[in-house]
Structure formats: structure tokens, C-alpha cells
Amino acid sequence: MRLGDQRASDNVEDRRGMGVGGGLGVGGLVIAVIAYFLGFDPSAVMNVAEQVVAPQRETREAPKGAPADEMGQFVAKILGSTEVVWGKIFQQSNGQYRAPTLVLFDGQVRSACGMAQSATGPFYCSRDEKLYIDLSFFRDLQTRFRAPGDFAQAYVIAHEVGHHVQKLTGTLQKLEAERGRVTKADNNLMSVRMELQADCYAGVWGYHAGTMNQLESGDIAEGLNAATAIGDDRLQQQTQGRVVPESFTHGSSEQRVRWFKRGLDSGRAKDCDTFSTASL
Ligand SMILES: [Zn+2]
User: Fold this and answer.
1) Cα of 160 from ligand 1 centre, angstroms
2) Residues around the ion ligand 1 (C-beta < 5 A)
3) Whole-angstrom Cα distance, residue 265 to residue 279?
4) Ligand 1: centre distance to CA 198 (Å)
5) 59-100 residue pLDDT tens
6) Which of 50, 52, 62, 68 has its CA nearest to residue 20?
7) Rounded to two decimals, what is the model's pTM?
């Protein structure tokens, strides 16, 4: 990627090296169990949101603003790029984009949705409108998932930002209301639709990053490769040796690539309607 001219977002909270204080609470244990193995975010953010954990104060204030180190700068610039893109898209429909905060942490973190571990993977908490990322996931992406490249990392951030967009448009709340009233299979399907839409939104950002001249040759391929690497079928094959489509919560590799690509090709958020489409 070419991010030289991109302003680094100040909406970053750097909790790296801070610990959480107070250890892993009961809520944390529950979350550790339900956290989707190797997933992008805990088995749909909604699961985590159900864990009612009284937010406790951090003992120290985390530094706010774009971190100075290379990875911190990269993350802050990608976030800045998503702010520009979604700011414009919301403006076009007379709306206003409220930017989320990105929290960098290592080990474990306390969010308004409960405690989470690095192993959970990056996630979005709709209660505090923050994206949580342990940068070690980017290393995993490269080594364990064999999805190297800066655009693969940017896709991860843009996907979580996609969940924030779902909060702003009300999609997330609608799904949370439906949750609990439907069967597990239906819950899983809803989760897949939500994740594929976040992938598509990540693609929408990618399209506009391209028009801002931030993409280099090979970037798109890195993103598509990452989407392939984290499909449910691929992950299940790797970890369980078999594939159980009914248990998918994020979508197959083919679906994730296709919806990501749909956003990438059109740049229009309205092309990301994974909820009323007949074929996912
Ligand atoms: Zn997600």
C-alpha cells in the first residue's frame, strides 16, 4: 500500500504493555469459551455483547492518538483512510459518520463487551464503538494463515470498521433484537450474513482506497488471499479435519472472497445487502 499522504487517525488508544489490572473475570472465562476458534472476532460480536460485565476502570489512562512506531502508524493511517471513505459515503446520503476508536492491546483486554484474549482475534464492540486489535494477529495472518501483506492487514481493520458501519446503520441492533428468538442454525446464518456484509464493506473501503491511489499492484491479491484463508470451511478443515457448513458463522472462503470483491468492484455500500439476497 502507499499511505504516505494519508493522515494518521487520532482515534487510537494504545493499551499495549498496559495489562488490564484485576485479572480475568468471570465474564472473561465465558467469553474465552464462546470465542470463535481462530476467528476474526468472537463468535459474532453479539455473543460477547450478551456477557454483562460491569466495565471497570483502567488503572492507568491509555495514551490516545496515533502511535509513533511503524505498526502503530500503519494502523492509524488505515483507520484514517476508512474515516475519509466512510465520511464521504455517509455524507452522500445526508448522514454523518461517527468514527470508531481503535484499541491496540496485547495479551488480553477489557472492553465494554467484556474481557477478551488475543486468541479471540480482532473484534468490534458495539457498546463502546471500539475496534480491538492485538497486532500479534497480523503475525498469525502471515504465518499461520499464510496471508501476508499490508493490504491483508488493512482488510482486517476495514472488516471491523464494517461492523461499526453496521452499528451506525442500525443493522447490528436489528440482529441483536432477533437473536434469541431464532434457532441456533438461524443464528449462525444471520452471523454469516453479517460477516459477509462486513467483508463487502471492507471491499467498499478498498475500492475508494484505490481511487485515492493508496493501492499498489499485488494489494488486491493479498486481500483476496486473506479472505480465502479465513473462510470457515478452510479453518474447519485445518483444525477439525472436516467441514460442517451448518456451523459456519463467517462464511466459506468462496463467499468471503466474493462479497469482498463485490465491494471492491463497485465501491457502493448498497451493493452489500447480504440480508435480502436469495443466494449468499
Ligand atoms: Zn466480523
Assistant:
1) 6
2) 40-41, 195, 198
3) 19
4) 6
5) 578 899 999 999 999 999 999 999 999 999 999 999 999 999
6) 62
7) 0.87
